[in-house]
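Anyone opening a protein record will find just a pair of labelled lines. A complete record is shown below as an example.
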Amino acid sequence: MKRMLTATLAVLSIHMAAVSQTNPAITSWIINTTGLTGYNCPTCTAPVFGTIAANIQSVSYTSTDAYIKSQGIPSYNVGPWSSNPNTPSAQNKTWKITLNPVDNSGTKTTVGLGVVGVWSNGVGIFNPMDGYYWNSATNAIAQGMGTWNRNAYIFEGVSFDACLGHPNQTGTYHNHVIPKCLFASTNSSVHSPIIGYAFDGFPIYGPYGYTNTNGTGAIKRMTPGYSVTTATTRASGPSMNTAVTIGGVASTYYAGTFLEDYIYTAGSGDLDQYNGRFCVTPEYPGGIYAYFVTVDASDTPIYPYVLGPQFYGTVNAGNMGPGGGSNAVPAGAVTYTPTAAGINEYNTFPSEINVYPNPLLDNALQFEMTDNSYDLFVKVMDYQGRVVASKQYRSLQYDLKISMPLSYLTKGMYMVSFESNGHKMAKRILITEE
């Protein structure tokens, strides 16, 4: 019996290790391995250099779920926040993300107030509401959630910092829209990376993806299926053209100031009513339902920003509402340790792929192939194993000499991998400051 139990545990351990190496819900997080601290605001009136542990403190996983521990504080500089007296504080959260997300085929869960997901650095993702709504019973703005909910980007945007985030009254630093300091948000040359996960377990990408859902076509900016209503009145709502005075402050609630002013039209954009689509991505070559943050051609956030009014999949309730994010890591969960820094270089191609120069020059990865008869997949990973750049080249459609822009990456050591016709190669590259 003891030998059988030991063997069972060994098999389970091998299975769990395999899960960690293949599931992006485990490997896509920015884990703090060097003691980075956050709530750093050097430009605040009174400069702040915080001591709160930044990014993700640990990632654990079972065969079904990942457990993400975070204080909700980024390592990049934040603040100042105009017209906002709040300051960030440690949140001590453990988010539970399913490794096997599924479509909620029943009644969809409404994206309510508060946190609806978590960015890859552990910062909370908030819904698009500012917490105030039009109360038709009293013809006034009430606090909470109602029929006509105010747009946080419009009413709270003045208090966003350069990273488009701010803290609320509980000290929770968060973003209602694209987190511009988290990744190279304007890079349109490659498929955007995974930048977070919604609480239904489906990934959230930056604004750029493949034109076609099967992973083909040029890289393009994903467009939402929502547009501002052309109506001139609101049923049981405030006028669109007349200033309404609430608490001595006059506001004109023009079209777009309430979330319900946005109308979804199927097929009018790349994304569905939940702000996602089922598609092939670099991390999910077999396809996955994925959300995309949405911006316009000038990189300005546009509705629905991150998620639509409802979640696409089945939501883990343990993450939602007051006290959300207090999930207990079960006994036997395995701690994930990033391994990219320890990956050895290897090559199973018939001949060497010439990668040059190394260190990189002019912020471009250049390489030469000897054959373009097969599809070529190229991925660049940071020291934590997160894919920070990727490109798929279709057979007979790419030159043997290729230049892949990487100007948006910071200096440091990376691993680049090539895969074509069953052959694989991995090589370290160094990016230095000029």
About this structure: The helical segments are 2-22, 24-27, 152-155. The chain has three helices and 31 strands.
